[in-house]
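Lab notebook: predicted structure, single chain.

Context: the supervisor wants predicted structures on file for every construct in the current expression panel, including those that have not yet been purified. This is the next one on the list. No modifications to the sequence; it matches the entry in the shared construct table.
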Amino acid sequence: LTWWEAEQIQKAIKTVEKQHSQLKSVAISELQDFTDKIIHTAQSRQAQAGVHQLSKAQRTRDIRQNKQEAIQVEREEHLQNRSVNSIRTIHSNQDNTPTPPSHSSNLDLTSQPDLMRQLFEEDDEE
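Prediction complete. Output recorded below exactly as produced.
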């Protein structure tokens, strides 16, 4: 690498950096214009909607109040669902329809085995 080649490479690097910095400044200005436009549009929408600027304390109070109201509504819904479910379980237990025996086994699980005969037979054998 000669001194002349190194100088040519440095000149090329400097021109590329200048072009890049120019493009970068143009992109930054376009981005700033874009964000300013978004902010301006949002502010105009808020003004049209009549949104008032509330203090942070008032916003916090409103959030807490809304949260308490939501919790109260959930509790009421839970109590309503709970009472409905308990009524359904009571009615479903009062059905007198016999349950069909299981097809997989022939055992009748509702009847008890007759153990008295087995007890007396063991006593007779002794």
